Amino acid sequence: MEPKLALALDVENQEEAFSILDQLGNEKIIIKIGYLLFIKEGSDLIKKIKKKGFEVFLDLKLHDIPNTVYNGVKSAVEIGADYLTIHTLGGKEMMEKAVEAKRGSDLKLLGVTVLTSHNEDYLKYLGTRYSLDQLALKLAKTAVSLGVDGIVSSPFEVRRLKEEIKKEFICVTPGIRFSNSDDDQKRVATPEFAVKEGADILVIGRPIIKAENKKELIKEIHRILQNA
Ligand code: C5P
Q: Is 186 designated active site?
């Protein structure tokens, strides 16, 4: 697939959200909505964003008993979400039910493996002998084999995932920056690098949110994605 851009719309409320969306012009992008907006503004916001012609990426990282996740995925389908994240650590049965719930719809399920906020202490906490990399690969492989459509990973892990996982899947990468930035993203990659490594969807938030001319920056990113 041609690489796509997902804007992480990490803002406080609908007013701020629409003030940004109104500055984006007709550029075809995905809008990623996380806890911050979804818990406050809910499905009403999703429907409005869809009406504006954007694809919606619900980043809710579902992790619960299989039946509850099944119901959550069904609801995401109902409100018209295009992408939804689930935790691969939720287990095989949970992922199977998630896949079953979206069957027949266009919703793409994206699996989250080991969060970048975790380190070796987390492995001790889980009681696993796997390294962080081994665990992330095992979880990603299992998820894709069960029918999860994509995996969220660092741009630095895309190549290995694409090499090791034989089945086709969508690779989604946050942690993208244009140059050295001073925010909390520690290991960042440029859009060119991410695409060359094999990323299919690039998640970018603050660099676009803070840009004076968001439309122009998105156009520039699209040029980069097409030429990388
Ligand atoms: O503003 P920024 O470009 O850093 O936004 C990146 C988005 O991707 C945020 O919504 C963040 O929660 C998400 N994310 C991340 N790193 C991960 C997983 C998700 O930055 N490992």
A: no
Q: Give CA–CA dist 226/67, Å, rounded.
A: 41
Candidates 81, 84, 79, 113; CA nearest to 99 is 84
Q: Hey, where are the domains in the chain?
A: 4-227
CB 130 within 8 A of CB 177: no
Pocket lining for ligand 1, CB < 6 angstroms: 8, 10, 34, 115-116, 152, 174-175, 185, 203-206
Q: Which two tokens stand for residue 174?
A: 């946050």
pLDDT tens-digit series, residues 48-100:
999 999 999 999 999 999 999 999 999 999 999 999 999 999 999 999 999 99
Check if the beta carbon of residue 161 is closer than 8 Å to that of residue 137. Answer: yes
Class of CATH domain 4-227:
alpha beta
Q: What six digits make up the tokens of 67?
A: 């039946």
Instruction: Compute, in angstroms, the gap from residue 175 CA to the centroid of ligand 1.
Output: 6
Of the listed 47, 50, 52, 61, which one is catalytic?
61
